[in-house]
Amino acid sequence: MTETPEARTRRRWITMGEIIGIAALVISGLSYWDAHEERVAPPKPPTAAPAKEKPLVLTGTLSDAHDRIELHPASADDVIQTQTIRFPTSVRADAVDTTGNARIEAAWFESGLRAALKGTKLHAGRHRLALGIETSYVAGDATRTDRAVYDIGYTLHERLLRSDAVAIEGVSLVRRAGDDLQAAVDARFAAQLPKPAAEPEPEATAAEAKPKSG
Predict the structure, then answer these.
(1) What is the pTM of this model?
(2) SS3 sequence of the chain
């Protein structure tokens, strides 16, 4: 039996329709699979936030004679490399640099401190001395720099016929500082100093005390 042209055209459309239907079925199946995978897949862990940089804090260990204090980071993860110690300008104008042996010695500042205190009302007892510490240290895999103002606690001990002895008592953090470290130290030390002792007014001479005649 000979197939008519109309039958061939109808069969061709049926074949195209079947292909389109199969393609739609495949796409629908893939969409369902993707949706199912999203439902059953375990949730991704949240991305960890970068660790916040911890500021350097120094603590001290006193020598038996209280003439030296060794400095250590409060965190065991920090390692000090070098330090520059800046004293108040009126106590010591030049800075002291240390490498690998972080410390403060009373001999570095005691004579200058006595000179700066001369003429003030500061008496024997416990007092504080401002100083600046610039520290290069290693934290993890990074080398960092910290600048901060610290207070050295010290005691003045009176000695017969000799200058007062200076004994270091401890160290404490005051605040962070930037490039103005020296200025910050000088300002804090100025606030720590007592006012100069007032000079007695000169007594009036007999001539000045005698009232003028009218």
Answers:
(1) 0.67
(2) CCCCHHHHHHHHHHHHHHHHHHHHHHHHHHHHHHHHHHHHCCCCCCCCCCCCCCCCCEEEEECCCCCEEEEEECCCCEEEEEEEEECCCCCCCCCEEEECCCEEEHHHCHHHHHHHHCCECCCCEEEEEEEEEEEEEEECCEEEEEEEEEEEEEEEEEECCEEEEEEEEEEEEEEECCCCHHHHHHHHHHHHCCCECCCCCCCCCHHHHCCCCC
